[in-house]
Specification:
The chain is mostly beta strands and 155 residues long. The chain has one domain (5-136): Sandwich (Jelly Rolls). It contains no helices and 10 strands. It has strands at 5-9, 14-21, 28-36, 41-52, 57-66, 72-77, 80-85, 93-100, 109-119, 125-137. The strands form 2 sheets. The chain has a 5-stranded antiparallel beta sheet, with no helix packed on it. The protein has a 5-stranded antiparallel beta sheet with strand order 2-3-10-5-8, with no helix packed on it. β6 and β7 (80-85) form a beta hairpin. The N and C termini lie far apart (38 Å).
Length: 155
């Protein structure tokens, strides 16, 4: 698509043919034709090198149509690859998704390279991303997506 936004899939267990369009009023409209049984298919958005601390809130507001998905952050710290699920599914229509990080989340740390992963259906589909905003609120700003607990600070 563009630098830092790309698709990935399991090409050992299936073949994927994607038609990507960008009609007016949409970031992208996807039509996927799947053969075989790939174990994953995803739209990946590189966020780059970011520092996340316990209590920071990662958020996105998105408007999609098509099958729901459960976005997650894939974080590379050195040679360690860790995933942090967002707390809700991305469903049809406009909605916010928030994740307040705990000390044990894979995204936590300095200098990690982060990618927002949007899993796509593993069978024939159409899916549209109409609009999206991504943001991060530091813990010191006070917004949390879930109540604070003692285990939030456990490492």
């Amino acid at each position: 698509m563009v630098d830092g936004i790309y698709f990935s899939w399991d090409d050992e267990n299936g073949a994927v043919a994607l038609e990507v369009q960008s009609p007016p009023g949409q970031l992208c409209h996807l039509t996927g034709r799947i053969s075989g049984a790939p174990e994953w298919l995803a739209l990946n958005i590189s966020l780059g090198v970011l520092d996340f601390a316990p209590g920071d809130t990662f958020g996105m507001a998105a408007n999609v149509s098509g099958a729901p998905c459960t976005p997650y952050l894939r974080s590379l710290h050195g040679e360690m690859l860790l995933d942090t699920a967002l707390q809700d599914d991305l469903r049809e229509g406009p909605q916010p998704l928030l994740r307040t990080f705990d000390a044990h989340d894979g995204a936590i740390g300095q200098g990690g390279f982060h990618t927002l992963v949007l899993p796509l259906p593993r069978q024939d589909f159409t899916w549209a991303l109409h609009d999206m905003a991504i943001f991060m609120l530091p813990a010191g700003k006070g917004l949390r997506s879930a109540p604070l607990t003692l285990s939030s600070f456990a490492s």
